[in-house]
Amino acid sequence: MPRRNDLSSVLVIGSGPIVIGQACEFDYSGTQACRVLKEEGLRVILVNSNPATIMTDPGIADATYVEPITPEVVASIIEKERPDALLPTLGGQTALNTAVALSEMGVLERFDVELIGASIDAIRAGEDREEFKAIVERSGAEVARSFIAHTLEECHAAAAELGYPLVVRPSFTMGGLGSGFAYTPEDLDRIAGQGLADSITTEVLLEESILGWKEYELELMRDKADNVVVVCSIENVDPVGVHTGDSITVAPALTLTDREMQRLRDIGIAVIRAVGVDTGGCNIQFAVHPETGRVIVIEMNPRVSRSSALASKATGFPIAKIAARLAAGYTLDEIPNDITGSTPASFEPTLDYVVVKVPRFTFEKFPAADPTLTTSMKAVGEAMAIGRCFTEALQKALRSIDKGGVQFHWDGQAPTPEETRSLVAAAATATEGRLVQVQQAIRGGATLSELFESTAIDPWFLDQMFLLDEVAQRIRQAEALTGAVLAQAKRHGFSDRQIAAIRGLSEETVREVRGAFAIHPVFKTVDTCAAEFAARTPYHYSTYDQENEVCPRSREAVIILGAGPNRIGQGIEFDYSCVHAAMALREHYETIMVNCNPETVSTDYDISDRLYFEPLTLEDVLEVYRAECAAGPVKGMIVQLGGQTPLSLAADLERAGVPILGTSPHAIDMAEDREEFGKVLEAAGCPAPAHDTAHTPEQVLSIARRVGYPVLVRPSFVLGGRGMAIVNDEAGMRDYLENHDADLLFSRGPLLIDRFLDAAIEIDVDALYDGEELFMGAIMEHIEEAGIHSGDSSCVLPPMTLSARELERITDSTEAIASGVGVRGLINIQFALLSDTLYVIEANPRASRTVPFASKATGVQLAKAAALIQVGASIASLRACGVLPTRDARTIRDGGSIAVKAAVLPFKRFRTRRGEAVDTVLGPEMRSTGEVMGIDRDFPTAFAKSQLGASTDMPTSGTVFISIADTDKRAIVLPAARMAELGFTILATSGTASVLRRNGIEARAVRKSSEGRGRDGEPTIVDLINDGSINMVVNTPQRSAPRNDGYQIRAAAVAQDCPAVTTLQAFNAMVQAIEVRKRGAYAVRSLQEWDARRTEETR
Fold it and tell me: Could you tell me the pTM of the whole model?
């Protein structure tokens, strides 16, 4: 069946902001789909509120709406654009839920829009637990015994039948949100209560526990002609009980017999047919009893899922691309396989290697959170590695995570028998460090049966870890580091650094010895067919084998280092810049991408000329450079676009002889070195806040006293504000030093201590500099005052309150700093404006987190221009060829667009051990996982859109509770008066209520939680929030008083999904946005229409 002729335009719904459980793997699949549909000649209309992804670049779709993904907004886009079809299977749960809502509202029928990719029936069958249960049983398989409940009473009745422990799963949620294991009735109250709140249908499924069973996934695809392919089997190393996104996973499945594998295939194929997915992919999860082999189907997602990105990268089979073609009417046998060019997509991929995925966690950002891994996902990213055997792939994946403490090590003495016993006991609980605990217990003499009993990890995986320990012992005991010892270590994935630590040598010495023995990796190709057919696509992984498959080339190459796994502080904004560089440089050079993140667009095999799926460590990157130098001429390496991970390698790469393009490693270091950077600021005439550096913990208190409290403390070379804090007094500083590991604070250099500028306006600048000329890309004003990490702060572009004179001062300072540091490419500078003095907080000579947002808001491709400057282009030449416009951000045009970026925070995912939400107060350490953008003609509407995009439910009536710090009492009066005029009832703590009443504002005093209920049972504010009486909370924390009352209020607000505002500036903006909401629907406009308006204005 060739492509359908009755379709000329398709609306694709994206997944919105990056959140835990729904991350950039959906942007990867959505980007692929949009590109394919455009190739097929269809007009592609996209709605996605996320500015950080390449998917919302104006070149990917024909009409790109960066608007909130709500049924009402999408309905207005449908009314305006009149698409023929809607494709909802590539935007995660957000897109599916929106499609179901549009169907139920009658919008699809009214505008004659066909749903393609999955029918409403198929979506319901996959998501509705009762219907799915019936389908699985009809397919000859079974599901866990279960009950559906809509109230807590029904939950307890079901628990009496099933017994404890039992699993709680809400319907229609993502990333296991609201799910968990209940071991007691109290657990059930907590988990099911939250689950009922998280489910859009107020429904939870309670099912028998299958804890400790083996967990598997199959990725399948089916077309209209009923062809079905199993793309990939994936096995979880952790047994059932850990969300698959938080588990280490392996492809293909390694511990199934042939017969068991065939049984899972048969069930999977029967289920995809019965559910009715006939134009796309689906993911089915199974549990297999380790002793009896009984198979249970856990769940099925009738859409492209998180694992689809992993399966695509693991096999080279582009699931999203093929799903889009199937939705357009093709069948699998009509779609050619890109990689071989000679086989169709109906050929199932075959793997002659092992793939391991390891999750990336950031519990360090939430010190109060419970780090136990459960069925509710907590990982913020992942890394993938490919090797010839499991041990090699596992060790490569662990070192790709770019975090200390998660790699295997043989440091110091082996654990004592007592320590070993406690390691075995600790490994019974799933945590981020479980595998290292197992490895250390093996060192201490634990047996395989003890470890299996404790962890329920399959004995085969445990045995592989015993094998690694044997190899490590051989390395340690060898008389000399011979070629044979090294070769064996390398085949099992040991890095030079690990070998050096075991032998007591330096990493450089091991590298030299390895070079002397000519022991280097070769690069193999991911070809989907285990070398049965020739592969045309150069997608490589390293292994210590015989034959190298890197083809020679004649064109000069540029190597781009990616950002590695997503984490808080280093997300897809950096991948966006890397992708732009690869696309911009392809016309002039061969582009080589090195990255290890399976979720991103940069690791798609057709974005660059060659892709190396490798860890971003010095050893691995040098080996790629060596292989590319042997293949042809190399111009150099770009390290400034992937965030801190590649940047931290720059100086070592340069020392090893690698040419670094753009800003030099010396300049990068100079911006971090306080003394050197101080000289640049002095020469530029730019003041910095009073500051000093402490080299040891002992110096910190005296330096802080000299600088003057409040101070901002931060370690050197950090991204995402890791370890940063605002400290108000000496007692607070003692706490800070006690709660942070001294090694971490001083590991990369001294601790930087700055005077904190209270109540300053913070300004973010992204600019380009070529050595001669400056291009101001964007000047963004933060809505919150200084002190909140720029990644968490809402910001507006162009700035709302800066005069032309201030913009000129900012531009002059930016140029002086860029010139003084020696920037060639992008620079990001953070300024603070306090009573007419412009201070420089910090400068980063690299791509920043705000580059994608700035590019979408201004219509200027900053990352593309930066890549061209790094290989020698000038700003004048880029203006001449139309890459950059003649005017830049130093002048603001009236009547242009106003864009607001808002952060999306993951507080709901992180609970304390008692089940309470972690504190939501923002500070200098970044905590957001993603961002959204609102764009319109005025600030209030743009801000309202950004809040709606971030799922902040702005109330238009009801009750608002206000409790603020003494320093904010004067400024609260106007916004509170406006809320009263809008018809809101105002409650406040006694101090705040008194101030409001003196200003003529009706306010009722309520009790703090620390005061407890009144004599006649009057509720506290926390009671009122918990019973749903409060529609919005405004709570600005006191600077020095104990914060417990405020914490209780904010934690209750998070638990009840009640919008909580913790800064006065955000409250002012929120009041303006509520006024906009009360007026009714918003107008929608695509980025392409905004760009066209800008072009007309500049003529």
Answer: 0.90
